[in-house]
Amino acid sequence: MTELQRMLKGEAEQGRLDLAATEIARLEYPDLADAEVVDQLDAIAADVPAFDRGDGHATVDALNTVLFERWGFHGNDTEYYDARNSCLNEVIARRTGIPITLSVIYMEVARRLGQPVFGIGLPGHFVVEYDSGAYSAFLDPFHKGERLTPAECERLVSKRTGAVVEPGSLSFRKATKQAIVGRMLQNLKGIYAGSQQWAKVLRICDLLLEADPRSAAELRVRGAANLHLKRYSAGKADLEEYLRLAPGVPEAAVLREQIANLAKWSAQWN
Question: What pLDDT shows up at residue 270?
Fold first, then answer.
């Protein structure tokens, strides 16, 4: 079982996030070797100058200087839904990505330096938190490591989602590695579905369903992907299982009719 598979099952919270993220990137770059990402992250960490490891503020300053000034990482506003933004090798090569991949780089560089940086999965945006116990700060790698107060995080979420965020309503719970890789896969799956790359959608659904076979939402998406790929029997089976797990969904009648039509069509050719 790979690092990514273990993380998706919640069995590898002490595992290597850089290796799992590299495996995700192999969905787009099948020949990508772990060393191509790991060596680059090692090089970034080695570029961080000595700092007072007991001073959290100095630690954040040092990380931000290297990541965002020396290496030039920044958020990709103009091509936000480019699949390359979800692939760590391309984010490192191009110095640009989306909030979660830039956050993974921040966390992995900090881990190499023995620093306590954690992911925070806000609605519509991903940030990190430096938290040593003595000093803590929320940081936004998409905006060059900007320090954020909880109130500023609320305003950021409101801007990203368009929803009203009541003061004190956000959860700032540290994201598990399972949640991080799951969110990365969901982002990439949405991009592939939007560009009708159904074979890649199918591969992501297979990964997610291997970890959670009873995920009705993933069965629904995989069913659609199978039908687009003309895998009619597999698509029909997925939709039937989806309705078994979620019989009361609003689209149930439409799907049952679709399943019946697939059964009739299949009978004509058997």
Answer: 46
Is residue 195 in some structural domain?
no
User: Which amino acid would we find at residue 101?
Assistant: T
Does the pLDDT value for residue 118 go beyond 80?
Answer: yes
Residue 203 lies in a domain: no
Write the CA distances from 233 to 17, 212, 261, integer angstroms: 36, 21, 12
Q: What is residue 153's predicted lDDT score, i.e. its pLDDT?
A: 94
Kindly tell me the burial class for residue 167, based on how many C-beta atoms sit within 10 Å of its own C-beta (0-12, 13-18, 19 or more): exposed
The answer on 143 and 217 residing in a single domain is no
Kindly report the pTM of this predicted structure.
0.94
- Tokens representing residue 158 in the block: 């409101």
- Are 223 and 149 members of one domain? no
Q: How many residues does the chain have?
A: 270
pLDDT at 129 over 70: yes
